[in-house]
Amino acid sequence: MIQVYDYVYNLQTSPRKILAWTCSNNKIKEIINRQIAVNFDNNNSFFFQTALLLAKYNLPDIFDKNIPIPSKLSWKKLVKTEISSFWTLGLKEEAHQISSLKFLNLNFGNANSTHPVWDSVEQNLIEIRKASTKVRMLTGTYMVQADKHKFSQYTIDPTCLLCHREIEDILHVLTQCPVLCNERKEYFTPIKQLVTENSPPGTWELLFNNKLAVTQLVLDCHDKIYETTWIQRRVNS
């Protein structure tokens, strides 16, 4: 995509540079102007499609002679920024409509950046597998009994196979299942301690007073008040 805009930039700036050196060599400019005039309403025209792309990403119309053409470096930076902003906004808007992403914090940086789960993982196989499991939970692709029940057209029992008491969903697995109580205490107590020791008094009671908030904390903590690199690494591990 960016290469296309670079090509358009070079195509449009070349005749201007040529004309700055000589008034006789204007063939390229004539070709561009003729193509724009002839194909301005041709949906299959290169120039028509380019104009649509420029408008789509809120980029200046460099075919307009009244608009100063920026330097090549500035143009590349502008193109990269606008394309990233466009897709970041689109991804966030779409993600808000997907219920399976309810645990995912949507205040991420931009579409070009990786999620903090991957940024904080150590480079060894065990930690990568842990991060993969967490990402599957965040994106709604980790299969629990409730999912199997839904995808089997309600033929599979959604009840937790460990405690046989409640429907097994991610909330149940991480915060409620009594069979996992000891494992939960082992990992959850240090997380709570990290939050309370590294944030203002009352933060825990204010932000994490329900199971959903606690689950979001465990799975995706990067946009909370206690956000520091050290805490992220500890909570994400």
From TrEMBL:
<protein>
    <recommendedName>
        <fullName>Reverse transcriptase zinc-binding domain-containing protein</fullName>
    </recommendedName>
</protein>
